Predict the structure.
Amino acid sequence: MANKDKIYFTITGLVQRLPDTEFIKPDMIVTLEKEPDNDWDKEAIKVNMPGLGHIGYVANSVHTVIGDSFSAGRLYDKIADKAEGKVLYNMGSAVVCELVE
């Protein structure tokens, strides 16, 4: 059962942007940035990491969201233009994070 006080999200697209994702460890901080001008998805949320820049996107499909994670569409109106998340699990091709408020 999901914890009602916490919001989780999945980062996808990592393998397209990074040669290796093993360095992404629990408790690392990522920055979320709404990308309203994205031609493919008007609710796109870009994920950045200090020193690396853009590393992926918040998942926005039932096929890419892991577990109790929010999709980008569900998360979009719950955050400001920028927000932060904390890495919980690195699954290799996807990372599960908790929204930091």
